[in-house]
Protein: LysR substrate-binding domain-containing protein
Amino acid sequence: MGYVCELDLAIVMRISGGGIHTKTGREKVLFRELLRWIEAAKGTQQSLSAPISLTLLSEGCTLHKIACQTLKKHHRPDVIRPIASGVRGLPESVTAGLGIGCLNLSAIHPTEMFSPTALALPELPDAEFVLYSRDFSDATKLRTCASFSQILVLTLDQVSGRMSCDEYPLRKNEAV
Structure:
């Protein structure tokens, strides 16, 4: 027998403008972030003629799918090296020099990672973080979800020290 689970709230990352997003009134875009290719400050010693060595999360991860689809669309061969075991593991794998990663800006260690400009990788789409609710038609739940989303965005800004998209340098010898 199948298991059915109903959630009151869920926060998901999706690609901005990608696919069909039905406007049901049950979702609120919390914020958008740029996605970037990143490599360790010490580099990954990759050649333009060799397949791009990637370190990613599991195949079900949106970032994994986007990285692979983007490279495939631009006819850039890749090889997936270690697959990080979790969200914290991916930046650590990149910082250790195990491969190129694909991350949203707030997940990047700005002093330990750089944009691999020498590899001329294709541009990645933006990500958006969306709050889904079981029922936004109820006025009390709507206010609760709106308050929750404001608190969440403020908390993320304070905890991560997120910078605006314009504040992130993108050249090789500058921190991302």
In short: The chain is about 25% helix and 25% strand. Residues 139-160 form the longest helix (22 residues). The chain has one domain: 9-167. Residues 9-167 form a domain with the D-Maltodextrin-Binding Protein; domain 2 fold (CATH 3.40.190.10).
